[in-house]
Design goal:
Layout lengths: L4 H6 L5 E3 L8 H9 L4 E4 L6 H14 L4 E7 L7 H14 L3 E6 L2 H4 L2 H10 L2 E6 L2 H10 L3 E5 L14 H11 L4 E4 L5 H9 L4 E4 L1 H4 L8 H9 L5 E4 L7 E4 L2 H11 L4 H4 L5 H10 L22 H20 L3
Parallel strand pairs: 1-8, 2-3, 3-4, 4-5, 5-6, 6-7, 7-8
Antiparallel strand pairs: 9-10
Helix pairs in contact: 2-3, 3-4, 4-6, 9-15
Length: 328
């Protein structure tokens, strides 16, 4: 069995973490992942009130007694305000969740150093998802506990430095004295083994968890993921400084058309709203909203339960590590 700084830090069986997914990372999926020996996630922005957010944490605890993370993405939003970010972090500290995944602006700049101190005092581990060495170094300097090294392959919002996982993971491992978790391009045991060879202490994935039976999205979406290849994603919103990787569809073509014509934020926002994405997940319309998935979509060939996925990944990773070790 693979033991790493991540399994030791959180007391879990497997160094596999679920990443943030709007409208999808809710208690049932989070608990299924944690119960399978990995680390599930609750995406804070799914909840607009403190009562609902706290209730989601407590609901998850009713479904699992294992550790889980809460993801807080600090990026420009119509719906989520600066006060929301502070509330999410305060509640995480009060509820003493296992850890937080921070994306976008770091806690100290967005909310203040007092929130880092609050989380540390509560024993909440802080990981920052970054796409560059300079951002990893900043996270280390202000007291984060770990780094998510997010390559350009990832879905969602990769940094516009456009550095691949293959380069980013070892570069950050070289520069910081914190556990590094590889993000981007991870979907099976082979890619997990590769990340470990690069120096990662764990892996984080989101796209692959969408194609699990516990993920609450329409089967049309899951079938679209299975049929898609690694070249079926593209980058959008680069012109407004909000680079995102999404599956190619009519909506994404519309966004790119607006950008090509010089349209700004006001013209693009109606096409990428959270409400639009939520409706698409529910009704199974694969063309009405941006589907934020990574290039690892090409490695998804079926749906399965989270336990089967996670245990299969670990078995394959161990086999691949043994194969490589046997060549020397």
């Amino acid at each position: 069995m693979i033991k790493t700084a991540i399994t030791e830090m959180f007391g879990v069986k497997y160094p596999i973490m679920c990443g943030a997914m709007m409208w999808l990372c809710k208690p049932s999926l989070c608990a299924a992942i944690s119960n399978a020996g990995a680390i599930g996630d609750i995406t804070a922005a799914n909840y607009e009130t403190e009562e609902d957010f706290r209730a989601a944490i407590n609901e998850t605890r009713g479904l699992t007694d294992k550790p889980f993370m809460v993801s807080v993405t600090i990026l420009p939003s119509i719906r989520i305000t600066a006060e929301h970010y502070k509330m999410y972090l305060r509640v995480c500290a009060e509820e003493q969740v296992a850890g937080v995944e921070i994306s976008g602006a770091p806690i100290d700049k967005a909310c203040g150093m007092e929130y880092i101190e609050m989380l540390k005092k509560a024993g909440v581990k802080m990981f920052h998802k970054v796409g560059s060495v300079r951002h990893a170094l900043h996270a280390e300097s202000v007291g984060y506990d770990g780094i998510y090294a997010a390559g350009i392959e990832e879905g969602g919002h990769p940094l516009n430095d456009d550095v691949s996982t293959m380069v980013l993971t070892p570069r950050i491992v070289e520069e910081v004295n914190l556990p590094v978790v590889t993000v981007g391009g991870i979907a099976n045991g082979r890619t997990m083994a590769a990340a470990m060879m690069l120096g990662a202490e764990g892996v984080m994935m989101a796209t692959r968890f969408m194609a699990t039976r516990e993920c609450n999205i329409h089967n049309n979406i899951k079938n679209k993921l299975i049929s898609s290849q690694e070249n079926d994603t593209t980058l959008i919103c680069k012109s407004i400084g909000l680079q995102a990787r999404a599956l190619k569809n009519k909506n994404v073509s519309d966004v790119l058309d607006v950008e090509a014509k010089g349209g700004g934020l006001e013209a693009i926002i109606p096409l990428i709203t959270g409400a639009r994405i939520e409706e698409a997940w529910e009704i199974g319309d694969v063309d009405m909203a941006p589907m934020m998935v990574g290039q690892s979509v090409g490695l998804i060939h079926n749906t399965m339960i989270c336990k089967e996925l996670i245990e299969g990944m670990m078995e394959e990773a161990e086999e691949q590590i043994a194969v490589v070790s046997g060549k020397f």
